[in-house]
Amino acid sequence: MTQTNNPLHGITLETIITQLVEHYGWEELGARIKIRCFTEAPSIKSSLRFLRKTDWAREKVEYLYLKTNKLPLPAAKSIQAPAKEPSKKSAPKPNSKPTQTKVVTPTPAVEGQVNSHIWGKRD
């Protein structure tokens, strides 16, 4: 398989992180991509370890690298799962009658019959 259309071909992850840190610095990099390996005790080694295991974070770093160096951006990925529609909460209709809630009055407790309306009467 050829990599002619891949602008990241031949560029190591270590090179990408090093160049981003030189360009932005750790603080700005942590502000742009909110992951702990950039904000809490950042280092190249810890960032490499995390980004090699975590695809979503690596994609964000690679995207920022491409954008910073004005390289061609990757095509948008097609989502396999259908998009979730926002839940439609039913708003009351302006001309409809308000719904009535049923009020349950508790049965007075008789000695030895606490919650008898729930559990039944004791023998």
UniProtKB/TrEMBL annotation:
InterPro entries: DNA-binding_VF530-like, SAP_dom_sf. Residues 92-108 have a biased composition (Low complexity). Signal peptide: none annotated. Transmembrane segments: none annotated. GO terms for molecular function: DNA binding. Residues 76-123 are annotated as: Disordered. It comes from the Bacteria. This is DUF2132 domain-containing protein. It comes from Shewanella oneidensis (strain ATCC 700550 / JCM 31522 / CIP 106686 / LMG 19005 / NCIMB 14063 / MR-1). The lineage of its organism: Bacteria, Pseudomonadati, Pseudomonadota, Gammaproteobacteria, Alteromonadales.
